[in-house]
Inverse folding.
């Protein structure tokens, strides 16, 4: 009759276990969903707030439907929570602060203030001695030529607030692009950034816990197309101890400055052998999805450990990993399953052009085997934008 | 502003994605819960049937509350399912067959017929040339002495149906135990089994898919106390290729005989260098929980792949693993988190003496490091029965 560990004898469980920590999350997209999938085995309970009644995390835990800045809904979300966190840097900082009446909000909403304004973000990098591309604030049309002179061309004009996945940006490669760039974006506070001819894009993910203990994952190499992340390779190829140390120093300075608790991602450019910070994301990050199978502790579990005041888990790698985003369309699950060492993650989102619907991670014992598996997965995942 | 991959802009998703496979599961305990946790990232949807309204899987997917043999509830469970499976070998075989009106039931309920009757089980082993301890059916008091003579002492008297976790059994070490054994169990069909002075307990987990492709995990060494599994070590220490081959041959013969689709576990005794089959479990199994972190594909994902007609995943190990069950009480989560390479799984069940509430898996790159981590986890997990 077997050991019967699945025994479901018709005996009522008298009471549900108490003392489960409750993590309330502002935002219920795929990052919230993956936080839940990491936390549910640990006995953590979740509650989400999202404007969409079909938000992906809502099939795993109670979902409060409402605007992320709606104080009544935030009260509903945060009541009784052990801790409140967020899975999107666009969460209104005031909304996050409103939740603090009920439970600690981690990371501190200060991180949102920095992440939500590209000018404040770049100034923070600069103040902490972190390299950045040249930048100038641009509020009026008359300032734009002077700004272009200051940072040089090619440059990129961006809204200070609200852009993501390549939106709210306009390239200025020659003086003839200036008018079109202003026409596209003018009227809101802007920032002009010099476009650095970087060697490659990298990111560093780090986690800091309540007592200040900090751990970093190995730097990851990222490939974007049309402003959307396509492939991350971990560890980044040709990652030297010096480059890793430089990335860790950048992350650590930011974590300490912001008295940060949780996972922080910093997007970086490698330029002439040095790192420049591009932007930060005060949350778990797409370039860290490989950690689910490719690290001893995933970014999702480590974020939960940090915000719940638990000891951090090891950020050591398990083999060599790569992650491919599924954009606009999901690959055939059987075809992915046919690739050894490939792990499919379907966010159960409705297909839509340019939308992140899932990802596939490959892990192998050697970089060569990883590259082979990555190649096979790329063949299966439609990498063309829809 | 980050890449915004967690973007939850206030845009309604028009329709939920269609074509997600739906797996309906008879039983909603921790095995069902772990099936769901393995399948949700793959975009698989679940529905469970369990007598308890607070069954563990019910927080992850819709739960039909009812008896596992109640045909109306089974209709509710199985309607619209892609496939029906079970997570307990005690599921009434007729209930499983009732579900087949709606969708294929995998593994075939024949496996339940075999697993639910110790006599049929042993006869099946014997018919397939698989070694077993001596056994004799005992239906009446008068037959017991003759049975004891036939199998020798020490022996163990068991009910043919319904026992698990050491229940429904009575040892007969000397002739003076015979009366007490009959008194405890007599009145239902029984089986007397010789107690083999085995070297150790092992198990083999294997998975067979629709086209007959079969894969085995490495044999696992199991330690029981009071009839409940305490620790599994994977691969089993000193596992020779010959022993692995013998275990795989046993599993494969059973899988082929039963035209089995899904994961099957066979509990084994190692005795004088050979394997004897003790019992089979037609489902994912406690001695395979280590595969979540310790194998390329977990037993849960491979069971789902098999029953959904997908290609099987690799059963290769990732490092060296061990699993410790949490019986009656859960360990302190922070203390577990302090052990590097330790993974806590909390089933969120109400504490009760002798009840499996969770498990902790440790993984490391070498057997020695694994043993060190196992030792640390054992210190944290209360191994005493409650």
């Amino acid at each position: 009759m077997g050991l019967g560990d699945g025994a479901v004898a018709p005996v009522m469980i008298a009471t549900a276990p108490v003392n489960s920590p409750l993590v309330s999350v502002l935002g219920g997209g795929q990052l919230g969903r993956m936080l839940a999938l990491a936390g549910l085995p640990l006995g953590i309970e979740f509650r989400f707030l999202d404007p969409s009644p079909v938000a992906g995390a809502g099939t795993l835990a109670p979902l409060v439907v409402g605007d992320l800045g709606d104080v009544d809904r935030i009260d509903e979300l945060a009541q009784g929570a052990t801790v409140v966190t967020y899975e999107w840097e666009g969460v209104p900082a005031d909304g996050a602060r409103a939740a603090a009446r009920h439970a600690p909000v981690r990371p501190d909403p200060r991180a949102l203030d920095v992440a939500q304004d590209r000018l404040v973000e770049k100034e923070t990098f600069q103040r902490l001695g972190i390299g950045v591309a040249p930048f100038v604030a641009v509020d009026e049309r008359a300032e734009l030529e002077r700004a272009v002179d200051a940072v040089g061309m090619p440059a990129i004009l961006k809204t200070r607030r609200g852009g993501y996945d390549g939106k709210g940006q306009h390239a200025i490669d020659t003086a003839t692009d200036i008018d079109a760039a202003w026409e596209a974006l003018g009227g809101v506070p802007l920032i002009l950034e010099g476009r650095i001819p970087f060697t490659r894009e990298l990111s560093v993910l780090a986690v800091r816990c309540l007592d200040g203990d900090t751990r970093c994952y190995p730097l990851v190499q990222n490939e974007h197309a049309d402003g959307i992340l396509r492939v991350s390779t971990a560890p980044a190829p040709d990652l030297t101890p010096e480059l890793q140390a430089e990335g860790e120093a950048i992350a650590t300075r930011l974590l300490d400055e912001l008295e940060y608790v949780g996972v922080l991602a910093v997007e970086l450019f490698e330029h002439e052998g040095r790192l420049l910070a591009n932007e930060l994301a005060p949350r778990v990050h797409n370039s860290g999805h490989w950690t689910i199978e490719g690290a001893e502790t995933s970014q999702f579990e480590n974020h939960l450990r940090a915000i719940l005041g638990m000891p951090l888990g090891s950020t050591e790698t398990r083999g060599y990993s790569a992650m491919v985003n599924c954009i606009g369309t999901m690959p055939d699950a059987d075809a992915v399953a046919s690739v050894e060492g490939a792990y499919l993650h379907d966010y159960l989102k409705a297909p839509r052009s340019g939308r992140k619907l899932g990802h596939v991670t490959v892990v192998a014992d050697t970089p060569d085997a990883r590259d082979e598996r990555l190649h096979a997965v790329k063949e299966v995942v439609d990498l063309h934008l829809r």
